[in-house]
Amino acid sequence: MDYTVTFADPNVLLAEGSYSVERTTTTLGQTEVQNVENLIFATDGTWMRNGNELIFVTDGEEQSYTITELTATTMTISTVDVSTVVESGFTYVVNTNLIATDRR
Questions:
Q1: What is the rounded distance in angstroms from the CA atom of residue 29 to the CA atom of residue 75?
Q2: pLDDT tens digits for range 54-73
Q3: Which residues 6+ apart lie within 8 Å of 101 measured at CB?
């Protein structure tokens, strides 16, 4: 993983690099594990904070995260994304729980 997010003033979000995740999918009792590479968490844009909510605005799209930990050296944010995928005539509902921890 080589990914950097910089929260600059005034509310400028700078992002650089990519990361990978291990994705586990279970369908009808069958579990599949995949390594997904070259992902991007955010792109350059702006950020706002409203209480424990952190909002990124990139390319005109707004994404909201809940701040679950914030110290002088660590920030952990989380969100849940629900999407519908139609593939080969089947409709899937995909729930993604994202937890990201950033350290100085």
A1: 35
A2: 999 988 899 999 999 999 99
A3: 69, 74, 75, 76
